[in-house]
Design goal:
single chain; alpha/beta; Rossmann fold; 15 helices; binds nicotinamide-adenine-dinucleotide; binds SN-glycerol-3-phosphate; NADP; lipid metabolism
């Protein structure tokens, strides 16, 4: 199939869905963009801008905003799903009625479902039984929406169990400013993308306390070990954690001022309550809900994740972040290579 004739739907008009729709339009595709809010659809139609979630980017006429999910996904060759992870099941369940088995599905959402502990391709696989599992892929890596919309050079990974499908998706998204590596370890890519958000909350707390640069580097490094530990238990490839969706995204989110997860951590350390912070945010900080999933999953699987554990107790039990640093520093002494 000639790429540019592919019919594409993007589901989710938040900052990332809008930035990726912009990228695809720049790559020469015409596409439908499903947005949840009528306000956002109307703004894009009249001003060619998503002022709520991605102000400043002019969206070309080749992007058609719609609140009609059927229009966005039916008859499409490729559907990109970019909704917050806690909305994935509802949205995908509704999508199922309109989709046939030929469509390639790409998830760009990062999270682990609270109830099932499934990653987003797992949720999509359950909700879209007509789509062969090899056609469900994930795009992840260090990529702030605002920078992608500003055409800042960005490098990500696309992972799928079917190498051919991952290659097709790679070709669709790749551009001179958006380099895409193919990867065949979707579970590793998704665990990396979901867990880095928890570590970014921890790094934000460290920065909010002004605890120093040494502890932040330690959190990033030992956080990577925790990502690998849980990932390997779930069947991931170790090398994925040295890649873009692992250490790459971890570094970006733990050190980048644009990160919503890092910001949540900073505000907690500065004394705001989680409810207060979330009430003030229209955007999603996936790490909050993922912390709960990972805490429960790690206890179920018997995997020790000390940093994630502390973040859980700070967010949901009111533990003091400074006390958590002390608790982490005074744990039993270990061998660095133990996984
Ligand atoms: N923003 C980024 O830089 C970035 C980069 C990579 C990955 N991601 C991931 O993309 C996913 C989507 O995040 P985002 O940043 O695009 O969103 P966002 O935080 O900018 O906006 C929130 C989104 O939630 C949607 N929403 C609210 N209620 C809803 C409902 N009931 N049903 C469906 N959708 C609803 C809103 O319409 C909006 O699209 C997340 O998993 C995030 O981790 C984001
Ligand atoms: O703003 P955050 O913390 O949701 O991070 C956005 C992306 O996941 C970075 O790759």
């Amino acid at each position: 199939m000639e790429n540019k004739t592919m019919k594409i739907g993007v589901v989710g008009g938040g900052s990332w869905g809008t930035a990726l729709a912009f990228l695809l339009a720049e790559n020469g595709f015409e596409l439908d963009l499903w947005v949840f809010e009528e306000e956002v659809r109307d703004q894009i139609l009249t001003d060619r801008e998503n002022k709520v979630f991605l102000a400043g980017a002019t969206l070309p006429e080749t992007i058609t905003p719609t609140c009609d999910l059927k229009q966005a996904v039916s008859g499409k060759d490729l559907v990109l799903v970019v909704v917050p992870s806690h909305h994935m099941r509802n949205v995908a369940t509704e999508m199922a009625a309109y989709m046939d088995e030929k469509t390639i599905v790409v998830s760009a959402s990062k999270g682990i479902e609270n109830k099932t502990h499934l990653t987003m391709t797992g949720v999509l696989g359950e909700c879209l039984p007509q789509i062969p599992k090899g056609q469900i892929t994930v795009l992840s890596g260090p990529s702030f929406a605002r920078e992608v919309a500003a055409k800042v050079p960005t490098v990500v990974a696309v992972a799928g169990k079917d190498t051919e499908v991952a290659r097709i998706v790679q070709g669709v998204f790749a551009s001179p400013v958006f380099r895409v590596y193919a990867n065949n370890d979707p579970i590793g890519v998704e665990i990396g993308g979901a867990m880095k958000n928890i570590i970014a909350i921890a790094a934000g707390m460290c920065d909010g306390l002004d605890a120093g640069l040494n502890p932040r580097a330690a959190l990033i490094t030992r956080g990577l070990t925790e990502m690998k530990r849980l990932g390997l238990k779930m069947g991931a490839e170790p090398l994925t954690f040295s890649g873009l969706a692992g250490v790459g995204d971890l570094i970006l989110t733990c050190t980048g001022s644009l990160s919503r997860n890092h910001t949540v951590g900073m505000k907690i350390a500065q004394g705001m309550s989680l409810d207060q912070i979330l009430d003030e945010m229209r955007m999603v900080a996936e790490g909050v809900k993922t912390t709960r999933s990972v805490y429960n999953l790690s206890h179920k699987l018997g995997v020790e994740l000390p940093i994630c554990n502390e973040v859980y107790h700070i967010l949901f039990d009111g533990r003091n972040p400074a006390e958590s640093i002390n608790r982490l520093m005074t744990r039993d002494l270990k061998n660095e290579m133990d996984l």
